[in-house]
Write a structure and sequence with these properties.
4 helices; 44% helix
Length: 130
């Protein structure tokens, strides 16, 4: 209830109304403190404690919001500026090498690769019985 009316309490305080008068007015409207059978009209001490707590929480939230806006992290995609004329290119090391001899670049077929690997790993296999 106090959180919703924090602006009103601030305005009353700016006009010079004391917390005692505000607490008394709230008590007349039925604002209570405590739960169950321990309920009693709100006191000045309880009002000032709650008011201070709400103000501190509000200040922390404002500081967090400010910290989030000051964060210089990656720019969101919708805010990035890139024109259509800008071309993306690979670095020279990754660019494909153009060569006149296409046959030199021919990769061996699957069967050739299998046979070469078999030759290299032949010493791991059991020797055939004599």
């Amino acid at each position: 209830m106090l959180r919703k009316n924090l602006g009103t309490i601030d305005a009353l305080r700016a006009e010079g109304v004391t917390f005692a008068a505000i607490a008394e007015a709230l008590a007349k409207q039925g604002v209570v403190q405590g739960m169950g059978e321990d309920q009693r009209p709100i006191t000045t001490n309880r009002l000032t404690a709650l008011y201070g707590q709400l103000k501190r929480t509000e200040a922390k939230r404002a500081a967090k919001r400010l910290a989030r806006t000051d964060f210089a992290g990656p720019t969101p995609k919708h805010e990035q500026t890139r024109t259509r004329d800008t071309k993306i290119a690979l670095s020279p090391e990754l660019s494909p090498q153009v060569s006149s001899d296409r046959e030199e670049e021919q990769l061996p077929d699957e069967e050739t690769i299998r046979r070469e690997n078999l030759k290299r790993s032949q010493h791991f296999l059991k020797k055939p019985p004599k």
